[in-house]
Amino acid sequence: MPALRDIMVVLDGTVRSEIRLTAAVDLARRHDAHVTGVSALGLLTPPKAATHATGYPELPLSPSQFTSGSRLGAAKSRDAGPSFSERIERIEAEFRQVLRSHGVQGNWLLADGKSSDAFAGPARLADLVVLGQFDPNHPSPRAGRQLVQHVLMTAGRPVLVIPYAGHFETIGTRILIGWNGSRAAARAVNDAMPLLAGAASVIILEAYPMGRTQTTPVTTGRDLRCHLAHHGIRAETTRTVMNGISATDVLLSRATDFSADLLVVGGSCHSRLRELILGGVTRGLLHDMTLPVLMSY
């Protein structure tokens, strides 16, 4: 059975950041995993005096500019200002304190810019990446606006997205799987195996549009249930018809009905005019999620 041994969590010093860290540490304790805390100057909302016309500091970010340990290194040398330095140091100190208090091993990484590109590198060395849903009520700097989508599509690793609203005392005790037999769905289920193995309840949901011929997929929910049983995971299957509502609404509604504390789905996107555009269900979930969602692409 695959295991979670390396968990990466992205932190920005907000209240929701603390909730993400709590979730990552809880998972680390349950799976005896190592936690890597990652932040960047570009994730922090700067004071007005420290911004350019764009509203955010013009600081470059590349994988080679990651630093480790308690020193800011290049970040300080680029005159980010004491407020940035103090906030980053506080985030790191709180990260290390939380790990110490829970007996969890980990390390700290810092990037000194604004782009989301550099997060994909360390994410590729993680078994799970914990990120936060974009909060439209508190817009973040550019590095955070499309961070979930960017990591999902470029890191090749599963992401656990924590909603910007609500508190989640447990994650992964009652899991709902959105299953359509696709490659992405299969990847998500495989990536979620360590969590599925420890869940008290697992439900596989298949949803079909009203009025469309229901062709049997290559792998059905029952097939997936048998596969999970081979791994010692007991699951139930259910089907539903989407009567004039979206797949996103069906997934979130059934998650509420089942009191699920984790939704597992495949992330979907396609190429259009050389840009990666998220599929409708993925985009809808990232906008409307009401519970933590594990996605893989």
Would you give an account of this structure?
- The chain is an alpha/beta fold.
- It has two domains: 6-162, 3-Layer(aba) Sandwich (Rossmann fold); 174-296, HUPs (Rossmann fold), CATH 3.40.50.620.
- It is 34% helix and 23% strand.
- It contains eleven helices and 13 strands.
- It is globular, with a radius of gyration of 20 Å.
- The chain starts with 5 loop residues before the first strand and ends with a strand.
- 41% of the residues are buried.
C-alpha Rg, in Å? 20 Å
The named CATH superfamily of the largest domain: HUPs
Assigned CATH class of the largest domain? Alpha Beta
Q: Low-confidence stretches at least 5 residues in length (pLDDT < 50)?
A: 48-67, 70-80, 270-278
Between the first and last Cα atoms, what is the distance in angstroms?
Answer: 21 Å
Task: Give the total of beta strands.
Answer: 13
CATH architecture descriptor of the largest domain: 3-Layer(aba) Sandwich
How many distinct domains?
A: 2
- Look at the structure and give the mean pLDDT: 81
The outline comes out as: globular
Structural class: alpha/beta
Number of helices: 11
The H/E string reads EHEEHHEHEHHEEHHEHEHEEEHE
> Biggest β-sheet, characterized?
11 strands, mixed
Strand content: 15-25%
Summarize the structure.
The protein is built from 11 helices and 13 strands. By secondary structure, it is an alpha/beta fold.
